[in-house]
Amino acid sequence: MIISKNDDQNLLPTTVIGRSVARSKRWLVAVVRIYHEKKTSERLTKMGIENFLPIQQEVHKWSDRRKVVDRVLLPMMIFVHVDPQEQKEVLTLSAISRYMVLRGESTPAVIPDQQMLRFKFMLDYSDETISMSTSPLAPGEKVRVIKGPLAGLEGELVNVDGKSKVAVRLTMLGCACVDIPVRCIYKIYQNVYLSE
């Protein structure tokens, strides 16, 4: 079968032709004005730009009442999943000043997809409060959660302030940590799971 140049386009799916050719999406961290995270996330969604604002619900207690409050886990930051064209569009919003970059670099730092998947999974399913640790943590043992709402999550068993926690590292941002009982995790040795 001989294919002419024009026939090429008819054989390719529409997602490969035109604007989306060679435009892979990457996770970047956009820096947002303080207290503008939620509104900026809404505006990005209306623009059709995939974004992720890590929010956790907390119960605030007073002497006479309790209230559930949404807390932004990483103030002044929004994760955006963008191609090069959308990357420019994000910066058109007045509340976004720039992208985070690695020290000594001029291009935006990319958060690996696997790290984002683990972080989002942790936020979606954790019953416990998630804390961010920006101080350097020594590498921990690779573990997999086997019980509870976070079953399937892979991370590191680290020591934070004398407590054992499961951590998911995020490039440039530190670690997202959560308390998990030791009985709920397995250590991973070269893709083999061993019980505690």
Question: Topology, pairings included?
Answer:
Elements: H1 5-11, E1 26-32, H2 37-46, E2 50-52, E3 55-61, E4 66-72, E5 77-82, H3 84-90, E6 96-99, E7 110-111, H4 113-125, E8 131-133, E9 141-145, E10 154-160, E11 163-170, E12 174-178, E13 185-189, E14 192-195
Antiparallel strand pairs: 1-5, 1-6, 1-7, 2-5, 3-4, 8-12, 9-10, 9-13, 10-11, 11-12, 13-14
Structure, explained:
- This protein has 196 residues and is α+β, with helices and mostly antiparallel strands.
- It is 19% helix and 37% strand.
- A 7-stranded antiparallel beta sheet has the order 8-12-11-10-9-13-14.
- It starts with a helix and ends with a strand.
Descriptive terms for the model:
196 residues, seven-stranded antiparallel beta sheet, disordered N terminus, alpha+beta, 4 helices, globular, five-stranded antiparallel beta sheet, single chain
